[in-house]
Amino acid sequence: MPEFLKLLPPAAALQRFLQALPDDLQTQSERVKTQDALGRALAEAVTAPSPLPPFRRSTVDGYAVRAEDTFGASASQPAYLKRIGEVQMGRAADLALRAGEAVTVHTGGMIPDGADAVVMLEDTQSVAQDEVELLKAAAAGQNVLLAGEDVKAGEVVIGAGSLLRAQEIGGLLALGVTEIRVAMQPRVAILSTGDEVVPPEAEPEAGQVRDVNSYTLSALVERAGAIPIRYGIIPDELDALRAAARKAHAESEMVLIAAGSSVSARDITADVIQELGPPGVLVHGVALRPGKPTILALCGGVPVVGLPGNPVSAMVVAGLFVTPVLRRLLGLRGPAWPATLTATLAANVASVTGREDYLPVRLEMSPEGLLAQPVYGRSNLIFTLVRADGLVRIPAEATGLEKGERVEVRLF
Amino acid sequence: MPEFLKLLPPAAALQRFLQALPDDLQTQSERVKTQDALGRALAEAVTAPSPLPPFRRSTVDGYAVRAEDTFGASASQPAYLKRIGEVQMGRAADLALRAGEAVTVHTGGMIPDGADAVVMLEDTQSVAQDEVELLKAAAAGQNVLLAGEDVKAGEVVIGAGSLLRAQEIGGLLALGVTEIRVAMQPRVAILSTGDEVVPPEAEPEAGQVRDVNSYTLSALVERAGAIPIRYGIIPDELDALRAAARKAHAESEMVLIAAGSSVSARDITADVIQELGPPGVLVHGVALRPGKPTILALCGGVPVVGLPGNPVSAMVVAGLFVTPVLRRLLGLRGPAWPATLTATLAANVASVTGREDYLPVRLEMSPEGLLAQPVYGRSNLIFTLVRADGLVRIPAEATGLEKGERVEVRLF
After folding, report:
1. What CATH homologous superfamily does A57-145 map to?
2. Where are the beta strands (DSSP E) in A19-78?
3. pTM to 2 decimals?
4. CB-based contact B215 A35, cutoff 8 Å
5. Residues with Cβ < 8 Å from B11, sequence gap 6 or more?
6. What is the pLDDT of residues A171-218, one digit of tens each?
7. Where in the sequence of chain B do the CATH 3.40.980.10 domains occur?
8. A166/B216 touch (CB, cutoff 8 Å), yes or no
9. Residue B222: helix, strand or coil by DSSP?
10. Could you say which architecture CATH assigns to the domain B340-411?
11. CB contact, 8 Å: A20 with chain B?
12. Which residues of chain B are within 8 Å of residue A219 when distances are taken between CB atoms?
């Protein structure tokens, strides 16, 4: 199919798009409570205000000792130390240990001055109220968590542009950082076009279908950490689309237009996008299936994507070209590791050289391991994706994939 | 380490836990708007009220024809048909096609009665206003989407217990299903214990540390689709913990207790859980690192998990034992495909036979492909996980993993 040779491969198209984006694309930031920041993007590096742990802690229940007092101790030749007290949990160790002395400590408790190791309770015997028998020697530092071993005061603990997961929330709160600055969630305008499209709550008449793309795209945008704003269904008519697109462009950080699928509807979309501002359309058409009629544009500093009207194509294109831009808007740095699973392809799949294909597959556990079962269905059929767990990429240079090949499945 | 031989392997512990859960564990259901249901669990199967697409549609711009009228047509021997009109987008095809006739159709438009194929515009030439020249033959059904090809009326399109992703939302709305019944989000009580633990907003005194587990566990519970309810920090004291646990047990669908890490704190936790209701503790201790002192219990129909106090252990245990129960509470069926990436281990890692280990790793792209770099740090250190992208499971039978081995990284 020579037509694909004139089109950019998806990776090159994405690169052209990302490189055109202004350096200051990132949204403004806002302060939020750390405990409400799950899934947000940190806008400002956080420095540890104090070390963690703030004091030396025992990692076991046992006796804090001076390691040198335990040297050579064994079950047959125990060492005997004088027990001078106990460190209560949550209290300062207000006693100092001298040669020949031991102090009872609990897991997480503070290590008293003078001690440099903890002998586990299991390796000791209590001889009398004030004497303890050690059946094992301890090396200096053994079972002791040093102050600052997790993080040091002044250390950058979480960099700007980090995605905040459960552990970041916990770590920040452990440091007493109860408010942080995060990227504001970008507003993403979503327009669906098509004279045949009606809202989901309408009863379609003959020749009409209900809107799908506004809602699948909203869901994907929401999952990526942005705020979808639906501008409704726009007729396939230049003036109407131009007016809606201008309004969306003025009110949002990114604009998505799921175009009607006829050639004339696509032409209107490209024209309207081109008029939104310079430099305009950067990529028109990608060597990709589904998703060939993709438009990537930057208009007056706002990224704009024209997506094919077919629901499956729209979702594939959103995954490939919208999500990376949302990461830039959020200021997220570092790679986004895609969630994948390796599986064995369950059937031969044909493909056309020169075009990157994305094949929906359903995962099935079999005695031979995980199978990826192709889900056939045209890209007009949204339930193709309902039946699928993920997509398999078929590289442009391949003429297909063979049954039994190991494939990476990108989970939805 | 023979101590691990007395403990259940994680998979067996989970199986014992899940098998003990009552069949009717699932939460009640509630009706919500479909467009707000992203990430929820469908409680009731949805049947298609009408076929999708509701009528035969063209997948291209071109001419609707009777395939038999095109047989033998080629560039050198075109077929000539009479063009009798055009089907407007969003309108019924209110004309019927007879032998020798063609009708202009657009992508997504309705196919008129009598036609059974569409010839692409590119394969035609317009001879006169009312005549079209076909340069290619069309097989019956070509470029035609049949009514009901996506789903048939009466077909179960999404089963009870399905997780609602972007495509399910879009598919349901395409069918006009604007309200659905989903599982109510289970309330999960989270208790942290420890005389040394203070809230994040407090300035810890000597011997005190801030609460981490309440917040990491809340985040994980939220991500799993449930509602975390924090019961605060409970002193390591039988009566206090008993009172808090009883209240939590009465008010929630699941209870998590992140126990103080000392042996006595753990003993109190196990005693309190045992008293909450029959059958009580099912598993006490798992051959797992980190996470050995895990308690799995069912108390009067409510699943209760006692998690180790170390933040890293608590997160590993939550992933292994809490998430699967939340899926049961939500009524989610079918396997939960874990998000993984295959990478090359960047260093030798030692492990003890008889115990399943979870090793935090950081992913790095190298010229040789994706590397999994072990992140060392004791399980007391929450920033160990901040520095990591996922966990590598080291099987119980292994004595370690070798540098250069291919490993599956479970992404956080």
Report:
1. Molybdopterin biosynthesis moea protein, domain 3. (2.170.190.11)
2. 29-33, 46-47, 57-58, 62-65
3. 0.95
4. yes
5. none
6. 999 999 999 999 999 999 999 999 999 999 999 999 999 999 999 999
7. 2-27+185-330
8. yes
9. helix
10. Beta Barrel (2.40)
11. no
12. 38, 165-166, 169-170
